Amino acid sequence: MTNDAILDEIEALGDTLARAKSVIARRIIGQDQVVELTLSALLAGGHALLIGLPGLGKTRLVETMSTVMGLREGRIQFTPDLMPSDILGAEVLEESAEGARSFRFLKGPIFCQLLLADEINRASPRTQSALLQAMQEHQVSIAGQTHQLTAPFHVLATQNPLEQEGTYPLPEAQLDRFLLQIDVEYPDRDAERDILLATTGTEDAQAEAIFSAVELIAAQKLLRRMPVGENVVDAILDLVRACRPDDEAASQIVRDTVSWGPGPRAAQALMLLTRARALIDGRLAPGIDDVQALARPVLSHRMALSYGARAAGHDLAGVIDTVVDQTTRAVAAA
């Protein structure tokens, strides 16, 4: 495929994404950034972790997204007594009319295309870890047998703030499987007014399919062919490496406050998501401003402040913003 043909396809995909975003916005009011980040995660072929208090529309967003993107939805309500077999499925012993016995695999709710893992941090770490293989390899292993998941496969997990009762922090290995973390905040007054009027009447806005699963897979492949400038690649590498406290390129504020930093998956996530953000905005290539905008969602769940830094009142978002400012200015000056 020639460069002109790729650019034509990117332009056409941008128009389709604009329609999809418009349909989603009819049901998800006042959360434009949340919608854009979630859509970016699906375009990039990854998973997203939505963090926010109950009642902010996280579940409604996932349901709407499954309809608009043409994906078969599954849902798991995470609770303290949830077991791994409740997610993956289990082998059961069956007996035929002739008396012959055999095992049959009963698929769990993870066998879908868009999984809503609702309140994921309500379950124990053992149950949370049941998602690890599925999220990374798109397959699960039960009783020595490997079962492939249907493509595409995405997990959109909702999480309550850790300060709430009855929550378990997600292990670092699982957090790293999420392409980005999306903070769902309260809507402003005007948006909340629109929500009241739109959702308490006799009719509710309906979603419609804009993509199919096949079309989404094609869009994900096209995304990976989108050109990325050398300055954007340098900005991504400089930012990720500057956030590792043991790296020679680490920023001084990171050395002083951060206990562990992001790995190569963070750079991969930034590379894919900057392309997705440019596509959604109708641009043919990403810029450094995309790296700046995505730094917090990509890095915040892949870094941790030291105990001393927390005691001193440091904020991880502030640390990331400082490093972003330092590295992007250095790239611009180069």
TrEMBL record:
Coiled coil: none
Domain AAA+ ATPase: 44-188
Residues spanning the signal sequence: none
A single MF term (Gene Ontology): ATP hydrolysis activity
Entry keywords, A to Z: ATP-binding, Nucleotide-binding
InterPro entries: AAA+_ATPase, ATPase_AAA-3, CbbQ/NirQ/NorQ/GpvN, ChlI/MoxR_AAA_lid, P-loop_NTPase
Gene3D superfamilies for the chain: Magnesium chelatase subunit I, C-Terminal domain, P-loop containing nucleotide triphosphate hydrolases
Family: Belongs to the MoxR family.
Full protein name: MoxR-like ATPase
